């Protein structure tokens, strides 16, 4: 059915963006998830892929009154949305499915809560509208495991981020085949400003093949593999991209220089704002023969790109192949969010990634001092 294919495409894009755009905060992810789900409600209503089995959901959330709760899957294993109509705090629903899936309950205030269901399950949901982040869900092992985990966290009061990570990591290491482990991995380790991919990879090592075959883990491990190829210390791949005049720019254009590559796009407000940072850096370092700046745009339209270059007064070299996120250099350097930057040394090795303005200036100072030492050593010989 065409509706099913549309849904799968939308959910794939949604899942990939949320899981791997690590620069956004948890609050931003929360808001964007909610807006995305509401926006797709009409489209997803077409996704009525008939399944051979069913599961039932029954529950009572005190204080919820008369409301609507949405159920949506987190990947293509449950690529549709269902609704739970709440009357006087209670609700009941039979849903079609034929495999164990991870899903979310989406409440009208934007709160999302994970749960799990399989063919033949009788899921019971209990809680209070005042504490939608602490529901008690039973009916199968994953729900009971997660409810127990949440209860343990609640008993800790206000735990630190480190304590939460330790608790989540302990659960993952002790539950190699639980869908809850995937949820906790994403929540406490992946959805961070700077995920520790070595730690994440280690946490997935002992997961069963069944979990590793899940779309999310498969995507995550592929992403980590990409990140490892573009890690600090690795040699950056060859690139050849045209500038506004059509001249092909490559690494040899910056021979014997440290090269700071800035990824941006005219359509991305945050990266447009970040151009101010690079204007300051360029102004400060424009006479530095050992340093160069290169802007790589993810624009798809040449005219829009060139107007943005002019409007933002970007005087350093700019390139774009108008492939957007499909640009070869974007894939090779594992760029997943805008703005982004990568610093290459004169030998083409990656020395820094996603550096702040302060970090860039500190690195440039180190480079300056290193060059001075070299000159001094030469003069002594």
From the alpha-carbon coordinates, what is the Rg to the nearest angstrom?
25 Å
How many domains?
Answer: 3
Q: What do we call the CATH topology of the largest domain?
A: Glutaredoxin
Helix fraction?
40-55%
Biggest beta-sheet profile? 5 strands, mixed
Q: Low-confidence parts, pLDDT < 50 over ≥5 residues?
A: 1-26, 44-51
- Work out the strand percent: 15-25%
- Oligomeric form of this entry? single chain
Q: What would you give as the CATH superfamily of the largest domain?
A: Glutaredoxin
The outline comes out as: elongated
The second-level CATH architecture of the largest domain is 3-Layer(aba) Sandwich
Write the SSE topology.
Blueprint: H1 2-20, H2 26-44, E1 54-62, E2 67-73, E3 81-86, E4 90-96, E5 101-106, E6 112-117, E7 122-128, E8 136-138, H3 141-154, H4 161-174, H5 179-190, H6 197-204, H7 209-212, H8 215-229, E9 240-242, E10 248-250, E11 258-264, H9 269-285, E12 291-297, H10 302-311, E13 317-319, H11 328-332, E14 340-344, E15 350-353, H12 357-380
Parallel strand pairs: 1-7, 11-12, 12-13
Antiparallel strand pairs: 1-4, 2-3, 2-5, 5-6, 7-8, 9-10, 11-14, 14-15
Helix pairs in contact: 1-2, 1-8, 4-5, 6-8
